[in-house]
Amino acid sequence: MKLLLIGTLLGGIFFSYNLLKVSLHIFQGAQLSIIHILSLLVGLNIIIICWYILRKRDEELELANNLKEVRTKEDFIAFAAHQLRNPITHIRWETEGLLKKKNLGKDIKRVLDDIGTESKRLAELTDVLLNISTFGALRQLPAIQKSNIINLTKQVVTELRPEISAKQLSFRTKYGSGQVFMPMEENVFKIVVKNLLENAVKYSKTGGILEVAILDDPKEVEIKVKDTGIGIPVKEIDKIFAKLFRASNAKSFAPSGHGLGLYLVKAIIDAMNGKIKVSSTVDKGTEFSVLLPRNIT
Q: Which domain holds residue 91?
């Protein structure tokens, strides 16, 4: 496969069973860095494709009740995701560094912007891979301690503060007494909250409103995440928790996405014997409501 940059032949990429070799002329500066980044992206995308194949295989194995082999595949997903993190971070740092240089040509800047967008998408997908493997490892384990879900929610909010600030969102909370204890696995709960909040931020317009509320009841606890974003078309709300599904307006508003976040959230809530509801109006916003029973088993 020929490798071109702004009309100049740079070299080629050759594939074999166990070899990925990049043959290049001698380059300098931004061109060499771009080639390095592109070669990493090719390898990363090959790994992502392999992951999708493995997930399909998992479904077949689960139907056959081959839990041991499924566990092996989940371990591989976790390992692969951890290995992906470093090169993806390296790509993002390299790209950001190059974009800060002066006198970049228009075409080179466009290429770097595209690489930055794709590396961000890969980083998001890596997080989902880790979430899936974490849930797979913990879903069979009983809750061993009571956790303050308000504190856990605050931890997630702190992680997402940069994204919330970047969108200039007005962030509002309603936590009640400040202490709501429930028996649960903390990491799994944080996966739910983080996915819902990330979606709310991602699909909100600059200057919008984001609200998080935790309502305490003797029988159940309700966690609400509400935004004033793009909303979900009425005809697509019933599909929103399907694997790999993305609403039509979501694809145009934020092209990068994988359609796995809400699918994972629903799977976790079901495993906790809870419920999740969604109400939405296009161009006005969306509200997700998670209901968890006090006696989670």
A: 2-138
